[in-house]
Specification:
It is built from four helices and four strands. The longest helix is centred in the middle third of the chain and has 82 residues. 71% of the residues lie in helices and 7% in strands. A hairpin with a 2-residue loop joins strand 1 and strand 2. The protein has two domains: 112 residues; 62 residues, no CATH class. The protein starts with a helix and ends in a 6-residue tail after the last strand. Helix 1 runs antiparallel to helix 2. It has a four-stranded mixed β-sheet. The protein is of the alpha+beta class. Pfam families: CT398_CC, Zn_ribbon_9. Keywords: Coiled coil.
Length: 196
């Protein structure tokens, strides 16, 4: 926007400067015609007219320099506008591409959520209600993770290694006993990789 504004300001300035040059040129032409016509006979008036024509020629030259300088600035502004417009187009195409990929990822995630939700409903139906209630409560308290794998004598929820006494208790507990981590209070899931 700033570059476009600068370009339009330069265009207005160029138009005004060109109009000023035209006015000076027309006046110089009129004075030259008066001089050439012989209508002015007084030597003093002739001298003044010649001085004015010379002054107008200098003024015209100065104004033409202004026009050239404004044209250069305008050309520079036009190049900047073109460059920035191209960059905006490039960025917009990247945004459009990223938006399309994001939307596709959202669709894929939504599909996965629907599938996992159905699977969870099936599995949740086979779990005792009190255990499911405990799991949901822990999940809410622990940022979405209510149970963690016991792996190599460490809770994968809080990444803490369990004490030897805790491991002994877990080792001696029945396979269907609900075991919880002493550090983070999550339900511990025992596997063959638990290290007990």
């Amino acid at each position: 926007m700033a570059a476009q504004t600068e370009e339009s300001d330069c265009a207005r300035e160029q138009t005004k400067a060109e109009q000023d040059v035209d006015q000076v040129r027309q006046r110089a032409t009129r004075d030259q015609q008066r001089l050439d016509s012989g209508a002015v006979t007084s030597p003093k008036d002739l001298e003044n007219l010649q001085r004015e024509i010379a002054s107008l020629a200098k003024r015209q030259g100065d104004l033409e320099d202004v026009v050239l300088e404004v044209m250069e600035r305008r050309e520079s502004a036009q190049q900047r506008v073109a460059e920035l417009t191209e960059r905006v187009g490039s960025v917009q195409s990247k945004i459009d591409d990223a938006t399309a990929r994001r939307d596709a990822a959202f669709e894929e995630i939504d599909g996965e959520i629907a599938t996992v939700t159905k699977e969870r409903e099936v599995i949740a139906g086979s779990i005792p209600a009190d255990l499911l209630k405990l799991y949901d409560k822990l999940r809410e308290q622990q940022g979405g993770i209510g149970a963690a794998k016991l792996y190599a004598r460490s809770c994968q929820g809080c990444r803490q290694e369990l004490a030897i006494t805790e491991l002994s208790e877990i080792r001696s507990a029945a396979p269907d006993t609900v075991i919880r981590c002493e550090n983070c209070r999550r339900i511990l899931v025992r596997t063959s990789e638990s290290g007990i």
